């Protein structure tokens, strides 16, 4: 084959990969928090009886879910400045990730909310609970338990999607890898290492989500 593998160049630049990994985790966690907030608020609006409240959420979900994430992040970073809204690459990446993840979270959480029986909701009102308390305690928490595996899988996908943010020069693992590859010309070694790091990050996040599930949702259903 004539190619000599040399991971030494990657090991020499490992601090950059480490900080790039932290950048990826930072973008992912911030994007998840924003996505979850959008998801919960969006579901509250999506399940409203008022068409004027539901329609914008439905439109938002359809637009985001049916357009590429790359186009969305380019729109925020390159098009919004024409309207006087300028954001740095990190802020743009977090907002784009939050919007993209939020659109999927709305539909996932809505499925969980609709799985809660009306009898439980009526029982909550009969006990004198406020509408917000009924939604938070009787509807939202059981719904999150029901859709937790789907929601966390979506969040892991969102973490991997951070690699697209290198297209606007946001600092994360893939952007660090590109700089190392351009300096060393060791494409196989660099991207093999980056693949392994992404696998570790994904496994770590799935482990953390499993611990959260065991702690927060470990209660009897009957």
From TrEMBL:
Residues 21-209 form the ABC transmembrane type-1 domain. The chain crosses the membrane at residues 20-45, 57-79, 146-170, 190-212. It is a multi-pass membrane protein. Its main location: membrane. SUPFAM superfamilies: MetI-like (SSF161098). Keywords: Cell membrane, Membrane, Transmembrane, Transmembrane helix, Transport. CDD domains: TM_PBP2. PROSITE patterns: ABC_TM1. It comes from the Bacteria. It is found in: Cell inner membrane; Cell membrane. Pfam families: BPD_transp_1 (PF00528). InterPro entries: AA_ABC_transptr_permease_3TM, ArtM/GltK/GlnP/TcyL/YhdX-like, MetI-like, MetI-like_sf. Belongs to the binding-protein-dependent transport system permease family. HisMQ subfamily. This is Amino acid ABC transporter permease. It comes from Rhizobium changzhiense.
């Amino acid at each position: 084959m004539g190619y000599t593998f040399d991971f030494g160049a990657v090991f020499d630049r490992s601090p950059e990969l480490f900080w790039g990994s932290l950048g990826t985790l930072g973008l992912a966690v911030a994007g998840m928090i924003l996505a979850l907030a959008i998801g919960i608020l969006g579901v509250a609006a999506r399940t409203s009886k008022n068409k004027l409240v539901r329609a914008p959420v439905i439109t938002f979900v359809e637009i985001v879910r049916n357009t590429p994430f790359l186009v969305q992040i380019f729109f925020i970073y390159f098009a919004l400045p024409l309207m006087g809204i300028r954001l740095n690459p990190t802020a743009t990446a977090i907002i784009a990730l939050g919007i993209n993840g939020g659109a999927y979270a709305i539909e996932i959480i809505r499925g969980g909310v609709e799985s809660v029986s009306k009898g439980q909701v009526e029982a909550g009102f009969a006990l004198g609970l406020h509408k917000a308390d009924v939604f938070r305690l009787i509807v939202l928490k059981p719904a999150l338990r029901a859709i937790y595996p789907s929601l966390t899988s979506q969040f892991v996908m969102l973490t991997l999607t951070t690699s697209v943010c290198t297209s606007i020069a946001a600092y994360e693992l893939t952007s660090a890898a590109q700089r190392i590859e351009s300096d060393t010309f060791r494409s196989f070694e660099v991207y093999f290492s980056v693949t392994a790091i992404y696998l570790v990050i994904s496994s770590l996040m799935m482990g953390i989500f499993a611990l959260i599930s065991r702690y927060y949702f470990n209660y009897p259903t009957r």
